[in-house]
Amino acid sequence: MDAGLKNKTVLITASSMGIGKAIAEMFAEEGCKLAISSRSKENLLSTAAELKEKYRIEPFWSVCDLNKQKDIENTFNAVSAHFGNIDILVNNCGGPVPGLFQQLEEEDWNNAYEQVLLSAVRFSKLVLPGMMASNWGRIINLTSISVKQPVDNLILSNSLRAGVTGFTKSLSNEVAKFNITVNNVAPGMTLTARLYELAVVEAKEKGKSHEEILVEMAKRIPLNRLGRPEEIASVVLFLASKQASYVTGVTIQVDGGYIKSVY
User: Fold this and answer.
1) What are the residues facing 184 on neighbouring strands?
2) Is the pTM of this model over 0.85?
3) Residues 208, 141: one domain?
4) Cα 107 from chain centre
5) Nearest to residue 24, comparing CAs of 75, 59, 53?
């Protein structure tokens, strides 16, 4: 499928590993001008080198802590200076700390708010003027199945990612007249470092090994397996494509059938 994205500039946050990295690879394969960011310079250098060798492109990278407004502004300015207008923004981030309500402090809530919701708001605010001037744009936010079916022990993610869903739907209505689409992708249980971390936490609580917990997680899914990062990335690519030009304001779950609700 020709996605119609060749030479489009795409910025993907938290993209030096896991789902973010898989998304970067998908856009690299489409011939996009690629900008990646992460808190870890070491991981960025490694990922940039890997993308260059595999796809013969020169990705632009920027160190960015999504909890810091200045880092977000610096990343946007650096990418804009290097490539010009950003055509596609993929707001990805790591998950906030797990924990039950009584275990969490106000500082945890503030950190999760900045990491999950405010980072998407800040980056979207920065890229929209260029998209509006071009009369074309794509904003795709990575959320979680928790926006449709809350996950035990993840009250921060359940709360703040739901906020991203409301933000997305509202913004999509405001910017549709500029030919800009805004959508969410909600990954299910996917083989990433985040899932491994959650499996370790659950294993300690249940007195089992994390390997046993991962097997149990897979059994909760109708497809009877965990997802792969590239399976999430392929849906992100579709939403950015010319084929998805009439899709906006939606949340697409990619979960192997885990969510039980009809809607």
Assistant:
1) 141, 251
2) yes
3) no
4) 23
5) 59
Listed in sequence order, the residues at least 6 apart from 194 whose beta carbon sits closer than 8 Å to its beta carbon are: 18, 94, 95
**Sheet arrangement for strand 251-254:** 60-63, 33-38, 9-12, 88-91, 137-142, 180-187, 251-254
Do 200 and 119 have their domain in common?
no
- Write out the residue range of the structural domain in which residue 184 sits: 9-188+229-253
pLDDT value of residue 213: 87
**Residue 67 falls inside a structural domain:** yes
Cα gap 246→180, rounded to integer Å: 10
Distance, CA of 160 to CA of 12 (rounded, Å): 20
Tens-digit pLDDT profile for residues 90-117: 999 998 999 999 999 999 999 999 999 9
DSSP 116-173: IIIHHHHHHHHHHHHHHHHT-EEEEEE--GGGTSPPTTBHHHHHHHHHHHHHHHHHHH
Say whether both 202 and 173 belong to one domain: no
Residues in the chain: 263
Digit-coded pLDDT (tens) for 154-204: 999 999 999 999 999 999 999 999 999 999 999 999 988 888 888 888 888
167 occurs within a structural domain: yes
Judgement on whether residues 156 and 131 belong to the same structural domain of the protein: yes
Does residue 262 lie in a domain region? no
Q: Name the residue type at position 36.
A: I
Cα separation, 90 vs 25, whole angstroms: 13
Residue 166: count of CB within 10 angstroms of its CB: 11
What phi and psi, each to the nearest 5 degrees, are found at residue 206?
-100, -5
Percent of the chain residues topping a pLDDT of 90: 86
Q: Decide if 257 contacts 235 (C-beta within 8 A).
A: no
